[in-house]
Automatic annotation (TrEMBL), chains A, B:
Cited InterPro entries: AMP-bd_C, AMP-bd_C_sf, AMP-binding_CS, AMP-dep_synth/lig_dom, ANL_N_sf
Alphabetical list of Pfam families matching this protein: AMP-binding (PF00501), AMP-binding_C (PF13193)
SUPFAM superfamilies: Acetyl-CoA synthetase-like
Domain AMP-binding enzyme C-terminal residues, every copy: 426-500
Record-stated family: Belongs to the ATP-dependent AMP-binding enzyme family.
Domain AMP-dependent synthetase/ligase, residue spans: 15-375
UniProt protein name: AMP-binding protein
Lineage: Bacteria, Bacillati, Actinomycetota, Actinomycetes, Micromonosporales
Keywords assigned: Fatty acid metabolism, Ligase, Lipid metabolism
Highest taxon, organism lineage: Bacteria
Amino acid sequence: MASFTFDPLTPAGFLRRSAAAFPGRVAVVDGSRWWTYREFAGRCDALRGALAGLGVGPGDRVAALCVNSHVMLEMHHAVPAHGAVLVPVNVRLAPDEMAYVIEHSGARVLVATAEFAGPARELAGRTGVRLVEPDEYESLLAAAHRVDPPEIDERQLLAINYTSGTTGRPKGVMYHHRGAFLQAVAMCYHARLGPDARYLWTLPMFHCDGWSFTWAVTAAGGTHVCLRRVDVDEIWQRLTAGGITHLSAAPTVLTMIAEAGAAVPLPEGRTVHVDTGGAQPSPTLLARLDRLGLRVTHLYGLTETFGPIAINEWQGDWDAEPDEVRARLRARQGIGNIIASPLRVVDPDGRDVLADGETIGEIAVRGNDVMLGYYRDEAATEAVTVDGRWLLTGDLAVMHPDGYVEIRDRRKDIIISGGENIASVEVEQALDSHPDVVESAVVGRPDPRWGEVPVAYVHLRAGVAGDPADLAAHLRARLAGFKVPRSFVFTELPKTSTGKVQKNVLRARSDQGQ
Amino acid sequence: MASFTFDPLTPAGFLRRSAAAFPGRVAVVDGSRWWTYREFAGRCDALRGALAGLGVGPGDRVAALCVNSHVMLEMHHAVPAHGAVLVPVNVRLAPDEMAYVIEHSGARVLVATAEFAGPARELAGRTGVRLVEPDEYESLLAAAHRVDPPEIDERQLLAINYTSGTTGRPKGVMYHHRGAFLQAVAMCYHARLGPDARYLWTLPMFHCDGWSFTWAVTAAGGTHVCLRRVDVDEIWQRLTAGGITHLSAAPTVLTMIAEAGAAVPLPEGRTVHVDTGGAQPSPTLLARLDRLGLRVTHLYGLTETFGPIAINEWQGDWDAEPDEVRARLRARQGIGNIIASPLRVVDPDGRDVLADGETIGEIAVRGNDVMLGYYRDEAATEAVTVDGRWLLTGDLAVMHPDGYVEIRDRRKDIIISGGENIASVEVEQALDSHPDVVESAVVGRPDPRWGEVPVAYVHLRAGVAGDPADLAAHLRARLAGFKVPRSFVFTELPKTSTGKVQKNVLRARSDQGQ
């Protein structure tokens, strides 16, 4: 094997390439400030030097408590290029949870943006981590000495992304360089990124490293447009006047965007590529976004799979289908992305279920965009491993005859009523198709006769007085009778820090008859 | 490291994924026959079984003497999936050269399509290779037993692609699975492939495995449309009526397409993505294709780099430039592709030249889409290695301030006249901008006073009587006087089997005053 073959696959290489190939293009916009690729690369080199000056070496963990910002992007490129390990902290965690993440990861340094100066100081006081204060950051970069980047082993630890932990302690999902590189290239391909992309950061960068788009947009030589907080008026201003071409967001955020007062259809001929995932977007929401010029691609993944391991790859001949069929086709999670190993749907014995669109099994994954395991938690890693070589996702799904996967429910969200399985997602989608409904969540309430019965929590459109009888009639026209909720509660839905509906909270409320 | 992380990177995985994800989509069209992805995968499985039945095991070489056809595509997927090594034979080689390739590679089996039944029999008689006769192929597949695919090491030998060998014996360029996988994904990204792509096979598949598009189109789930021979009428019929979205071709073939009687602009709103490379497309050709609706992307690579290691990545704000500037921008070779390590342009001491768009150096490459080396030829491998870890390409180029590389000439094609370097490409581009000229080649003729003087070989448009004085005046308005050829020969240009102009033939003719 000649010496010129093979270089390690690492997302740290993307910025080097884009700085060489697109030195004068705008890499990062953050408020009124912006940096070209040459400047962005220079700042990341300086940050490497600054980290070295703080005693951070290869393998050391560096935590970030940051909004979507140039700082967070610089961390995503400089920390891996330094051979260190990035620990993005979910900014919506409680102080105890943040302290747990810092301590469990053994982070040596914590970098915070101004928005979190207070909590970061408290955290540093509690854990002893070395805090880089927001107003210290620029002077550290300015004073940094130049250090050579270390050799990277493509299988080495790149980042530890803690799960939101709806049950128990957060688990530290270990990312590797090879996986992040491949996943980023896959995102470039599927999202049709390019040097003219202007990517609006509505998705939190701390969430699966922004589904690898922190690296993908850089790989493509596109422009990162940071959004320090999710403000629908600013989003619409950027969409209509800011030349945005791409964004990603969970369905709950897309609902906010679609329902905003400022929402107006984009001018004829202009569309924005939107990637969504993390939960199932309702057909109603998809149709609404379509009319606004936001073309949604539905992705599926977990923190454990670098974000989107699957994509609802749209096939042109589906455009000719009636609206309802198209909406159903688009609500499916789809197929493994171009670098992913094929997804399976397996029965409890680990065998593939029939690809009939009906038989429910659990999604199992493996391959290059699957985590190394949970940090310092072999038991948890073993608990999700089946058959020696597959990771069980906890998502119950069917395999359609055309090879596309469709989730029926999270394993823990399925409702069993009178021996029948009720997929909460199916009931929610039927509810969401009612014109009065913004979004809904259906959970099981213990019932002496049926085991469980479904209960619906419904967020109504403003100014609408909910009518349970009307909703029930709407559902009876669409679903089997046993799937129709026994009661309807009109309320806003409680959500986790990453925008997922907290069904555990709703289940607790339903137990108490609320 | 958990057991579910990492799978080997291999192009053999693409067909498995597409057969699972797009089972009913058309994978291959060959004349009036077509196969879905499910059928294509089934046939490749059968071919694996047939090869095993012929005694072919992992590591064994299997040669193909095939036109662009379903057979050649099946070979590209089945042979690597079997762990064996594909040897695509250039169908335009002389019998002696073919025999050399078969013997040097040690091929065990040779598969031929009907077009080459005669030469293949002769070859088998001469070398003893086991020939699969064209009319034997289907029955072998039908009778094949099912065999399990072996484990693949991503760094193992995938194919041996012999160079066309303008000087000396062909050299066997060793491809590996990892490189082919990554290069194919890069092609998917840069060419914007997708399941709706219909890729017209004008480029020979035996040439760098069709620049990895044999795998890329499969990875995207697109449709391979085979063209058994380059027939411009059929190409235009396919372009206008066949829904073709993509093709690749060397500039000489593009010239034929652009100059064809059947050439008509595509309907408003429809364009075809065209990738070109192998030689520099003239700005005149690019402008002509643009008017026809063929949007050309200029790629650069070598057999040694799995085809296109660089791409002239087009930046949207260049659209606003005047025609001439745009043509000049598009004639550049560009930047490393998204999975490539950055290209360098180095001086004889191996140092980067100034990125000033003027200082000439040689392009040096390394990385995951660079060959393992030359098969059984360590001396040749060493001869192209510099600095312990770079491969010297033999292409002389400048680095522009924006990071884009532009070739000035092949090292061996540069003309040195009176101590001045004349880049033959520059003179050819100026000649090609004359309305009478189809294409041209400029070589150096030995001269007692100047060392060398440039001589132009010019292929004129049909019905035009060439006027040397007029051409010389055209050039003097555009180039320094010493670059203007001393004589003009009106002739068609001799070409290699891959469509490259044979400058060595022209040099020999110029030596003899022809």
